[in-house]
Design a protein that fits this description.
This protein has 454 residues and is mainly β. Strands 1, 2, 3, 4, 5 and 23 form a 6-stranded antiparallel β-sheet that branches. Strands 6, 7, 8, 9 and 10 form a 5-stranded antiparallel β-sheet that branches. Strands 24-27-32-29-30 form a 5-stranded antiparallel β-sheet, with no helix packed on it. The two termini are 38 Å apart. Helix content is 5%, strand content 46%. The protein is globular.
């Protein structure tokens, strides 16, 4: 339970809707609303986009971060919360600062490189964890730091010839050549020269003559290497450089995302998915948001014909949906385009469930393809109180009511049962709102739902 975030969401929710999101039905950025998230690292795998994030603790006045989280989507609109498969406790040698990391797959495994504070030295180091699934759980791969030179923000590129590079840095920029096992490297760390030709010119700071600040995101596209980075704190903007090889020489190309968004840091990641290009970043757009309480968002963009990246601004709408969502197969309750008031937690039945549900809270699911219609709705529910109701509405949280499921008490928040109710009028492709109603206090938990065709 995160009472600080819940209180903020309740007290300024109206302000968020009317000021930040004047058209609430289309406001799907940031992509996570149940906690504060930061430093997105997207990965495309088996037809889904996975986003690995840091987690800003509620009410933080510093980068207070203790675990990492994973979200995924097949349509760039509805995101599934996979919980936290890794925390500081994963690394017995670390004691603080679960900061910005990056996941890369290789040899059927997934390697997560993260900066944490080394208990022995008191300085930042790069650790590496490994998992057999993109959603974890992750375990410490080597039981010690992989790189230990006091700097942060690791990122990995695997080149076309199979050579993997680990980049990281703030205030300097480094790389090593990883071995094929992805948990060791050959040679020592190499410092990349930060020249004004390579990384732009910063004025008024003799110790930082270039724009490079932190958060390198290095990738290759059409034979050209890109380094997208956070520039010139504070506040930061996102800029990039290009090179003919993974090791340079780098040429500064300009800004991508100007300073904006209520957070004095930013952190970008870029992937291509299903024919589109997507730019992930963070801002302070959620209620209570700011430089230490950030939120991950995403925009779709198109490269210019010459391979340069256009200016990208933050929006509340987010990218268009890719395809639709099928309501006639089981859908996890923690899959949504927008969640209002609710939170997620580990479920006793495995995975995650939506909990801490109160009267008026809702979950929005975008682009649900009902086709010729649905006849019934089934939900997996639990309640340690007297329960409540799940209202099925189309178009908005106060839109057309097509069904209501009544949930009785089950004797515990993890004592699960299934309830079914009739549905009428759910046809075509619509945004579905699961709106919760009932008395005071917490009403029920929701694990999954599914419609039956008409």
């Amino acid at each position: 339970m995160r009472p600080a975030l819940r209180t903020v969401l309740c007290t300024v929710g109206l302000l968020l809707t009317t000021v930040l999101f004047p058209s609430a039905a289309r406001a799907d950025n940031p992509i996570v609303q149940t906690i504060y998230t930061a430093d997105p690292a997207p990965l495309v795998h088996n037809g889904r986009v996975y986003v690995y994030t840091g987690h800003d603790e509620d009410g933080s006045t510093y980068f207070t971060m203790r675990d990492w989280h994973v979200y995924s989507s097949s349509d760039m609109a509805n995101w599934t919360d996979h919980g936290s498969p890794m925390s500081l406790a994963t690394f017995a040698w670390a004691d603080a600062n679960a900061w910005a990391g990056h996941v890369t797959p290789r040899n059927g495994r997934f390697y997560w490189y993260v900066p944490v504070r080394d208990r022995a030295t008191g300085s930042m180091a790069i650790g590496v964890a490994v998992a057999d699934s993109p959603t974890g759980p992750f375990r410490d791969a080597i039981g010690r730091p992989l790189v230990n030179n006091g700097e942060i923000d690791p990122n990995v590129l695997i080149d076309d010839n199979g050579q993997a590079y680990l980049y990281w840095g703030n205030p300097r920029l480094w790389y090593v050549r990883l071995n094929t096992d992805m948990i060791s490297y050959s040679g020592g760390p190499t410092q990349i020269p930060l020249t004004t030709a390579g990384y732009g010119t910063r004025t008024g700071n003799a110790s930082r003559p270039t724009l490079f600040e932190e958060a390198p995101w290095v990738f290759k596209r059409n034979g050209l290497y890109y380094n997208v980075f956070a520039a010139e704190c504070c506040s930061e903007f996102i800029a990039y450089s290009t090179a003919p090889s993974a090791t340079g020489p780098w040429t500064y190309r300009g800004a991508i995302m100007p300073r904006q968004g209520g957070s004095f840091t930013n952190h970008a990641g870029i992937v291509d998915f299903n024919g589109g290009s997507y730019f992930f970043y963070h801002n302070g757009a959620l209620p209570g948001g700011g430089g230490f309480t950030r939120s991950v968002a995403v925009e779709k963009f198109t490269y210019n014909a010459d391979g340069t990246i256009p200016t990208i601004n933050m929006t509340t709408a987010g990218p268009p949906q890719v395809g639709t969502l099928n309501p006639f197969v089981r859908q996890e309750a923690e899959t949504s385009a927008w969640a209002s008031g609710v939170e997620t937690e580990a479920s006793g039945e495995g995975g995650m469930n939506v909990g801490f549900i109160e009267n008026g809270d809702y979950i929005k699911v975008k682009g649900v393809a009902f086709g010729n219609g649905a006849s019934s709705f089934t939900a997996r529910v639990a309640s340690a109180t007297g329960g409540g109701r799940i209202e099925l509405r189309l178009g908005s949280a106060t839109g057309t009511l097509v069904g209501t499921c009544t949930v009785a008490g089950t004797g515990g928040w993890q004592n699960w049962t299934s309830v079914t109710c009739p549905v009428s009028g759910a046809t075509g492709t619509r945004d579905l709102y699961l709106r919760f109603a009932g008395g005071s206090g917490y009403l029920l938990n929701l694990n999954w739902w599914q419609f039956t065709g008409g």
